[in-house]
C-alpha cells in the first residue's frame, strides 16, 4: 500500500518507518527542511532505540522516502496520515492549527479518492471538522478516519510493530477496510483492530492517557502520605500489584509525569469536559497532584542541604524518562530552574538529552558533563531525576567518594533506602522509609 505520513516527529517517523518495514511504500513529509535534509543523509532528528537501523534499511530498499513537498507525498498515496504536533493552547485545550493546516493542504493536493487519517492525538469532533474542511477544499471523494497512536517513546518501534491493539474510527466501511489491510502485517499476532466511530476513537486515546496518568498521580499522592505515616510506598505498590483488578504496571511513585503526551492530553481532556459543561473532577485532580509532585525534588533537596545558594548540585537524568531524548515537560526542568534561581549551580549528566535540554534550561549555572561520575565531583548532593540503567547500576561507593556531602535525593526510587543508609548516605526517595 502507498502511504504519505505528514509530520516526521516521534510518531510520524516511527509510524512511517515501521509501515515501510512491514512492506508498505512510504513517503514521510515535514515542513522542517533541516529535519528532512538530515533524514535524507541518514541523520535522525530524535533518539529512539532501534529506529536508525530501520530507517537506513528501508531507505536503502526504496520503501521509505523523505520530502518537504506535501503534494509529492499525496500524489500517489492511497492513505495519508496526519502525525503533526497538537501542543497545549493557552487555555490547555489542544492546539489543532497544524492538523487543520495539513488537512487543508491534503484536501487541495488530492487528485482522487484517498483515506485521510489523523494519528495525532486530537479531541472529540476533530474528524468531524476535517470532514467539513475536505467538503470545502477537495473536489474528490475522500474518507476521513481517526487512528490514535499508543506507542511509548523509548520502546516506540516495538510498540508500533507489536501493538496491544489498533483503534480505527471512521463513518466509512471502505476506509475501515483499507485501514484494516494497512495494519494486517503489524497485527499478525492477532492483536485486535478495533473499529469504532471517529468520536469514540478520539476519546479512547485521551481516556487511555488519563487512566495511565491517574495511576501515576494516585501513587504519588499515596507516596506523600506514606512519608507522613512512616510507611514505604514500595510495600504498598507490591501489596496492591498482585491484585488482578489492579495489576503491576504504572504503579511507581516518582517525580511526576512529564513528556509530550500526558501533561498536554490531561489538560486537553479537562477542556473537552468544560466545552461540554462537565467537570472531570478526577482528571483535574490528577493534573493538580502532578504539578505539586514536580516541586517535590527541590523541596527534598533543600530539606537536606539547606539553602542551595552557592551550592553545586549534581543531577542525573534530564529526559522525562529513560531511552529518549524528549525533554518536553520533564521534571528536571523545574528542578534545575529552582536551583539556579535560588543561587545554586548544577552539574548534569544524561546519556542522550543534552541537545534537547539546552534550550529549556537556564543559560548560566548549568554544566553539561559527558560522564555520570564526573558530574558528581565536588557536588553537595545528587538528585536522580531519570531512571536510566546506568544510574540504577551505579557504583555507590564511588558516588559517595566523589560527592562533597553524601546526600541523594532519588526521584525514581531506584536505590534501596536501607543500603544507602547503611553506607552512610542521607537518602530521600519518594514515599520511602528506611
Ligand atoms: N510522542 C509520543 O510519544 C506520542 C505518542 C502517541 C501520540 N502522540 C501524538 O502524536 C502527535 C505528534 O507527536 P510527536 O511527539 O510526534 O510530535 P513532534 O513534535 O515530535 O513532531 C511533529 C512534527 O510535525 C511537523 N509539522 C508541524 N506542522 C507541519 C506541517 N504543517 N506540515 C508538515 N509537518 C509539520 C513538525 O515539524 C514535527 O517534525 C501529537 O498529537 C502527539 O500527542 C505522541
List keywords for this structure.
alpha/beta; N-(1-d-carboxylethyl)-l-norvaline Dehydrogenase, domain 2; Rossmann fold; 3 domains; 6-stranded parallel β-sheet; 14 strands; 43% helix; globular; binds nicotinamide-adenine-dinucleotide
Descriptive report:
The protein is 43% helix and 14% strand. The model has no long low-confidence stretch (mean pLDDT 97). It has 434 residues and is of the alpha/beta class. The protein contains 18 helices and 14 strands. The chain has 3 domains: 2-196, Rossmann fold; 206-292, N-(1-d-carboxylethyl)-l-norvaline Dehydrogenase, domain 2; 294-428, NAD(P)-binding Rossmann-like Domain (Rossmann fold, 3-Layer(aba) Sandwich), CATH 3.40.50. Bound molecules: nicotinamide-adenine-dinucleotide. Residues 6-12, 29-32, 35, 83-86, 98, 101-102, 120-121, 149, 151, 153, 260-261 line the site of nicotinamide-adenine-dinucleotide. Nicotinamide-adenine-dinucleotide binds at residues 6-12, 29-32, 35, 83-86, 98, 101-102, 120-121, 149, 151, 153, 260-261.
